[in-house]
Amino acid sequence: MNDTPTPDEAEAVTAEIVDDVVLTDELAPMSHDQGLTAAELGLELPDDPDAAQALLLRELAEARAEASEYLETLQRVAADFENYRKRVERDQVENVLRASQRLVEKLLPTLDAFDAALAYEPQTPPEEKLLDGMRGTHSQLMDALGKEGVAAIAAAGEPFDPAVHEAVAGGGDGDLHVAQELRRGYTLQGRVLRPSLVIVEEAS
Q1: CATH number, domain 151-204
Q2: Is 79 helix (H, G, I), strand (E, B) or coil?
Q3: Measured distance between the N- and C-terminal CA atoms of the chain, rounded to whole angstroms
Q4: pLDDT, tens digit, for every residue of 34-63?
């Protein structure tokens, strides 16, 4: 958009300014009600009204151009700061996620040990009581991990999904589903932490 005033607009604005300015080398201070004098604006106006008008127009155009440059600079700085803020937030989230991932990866062998123990069929009341305690501990652990975004991958009976399942046996030419889970897989915040090891077969 062109901010340069039209000749008619410039003439009208300049006429108002010239009417309020005393065209002498020694300008007397004016009251605030009368507006600023040329001297207070740092201008030395020539005696000729046409020359004074041309000078004021140049000053006005330069002031507008300078203000436009300041505005563009401010907008660029604001955009750069917003991009920096978003980048810092993404980095912070990623750092927290990596730290959580390292911790959960260290816990995976413990979770596997729980799965193996809980798959055991108790033979005596003491064994049943022991397994009940382990189930409670395992449940508390999974609840705590779930609050951090950890989730077990559904496997047995599910359609085979190579994104989250790793087939180690079975197969076929048709649609496949998971026939058996050999080792449980987990996700963290929606990312696959470890795929499930499974046996697949054709869906009937």
Answers
A1: 2.30.22.10
A2: helix
A3: 69
A4: 566 777 777 778 878 888 888 888 888 888
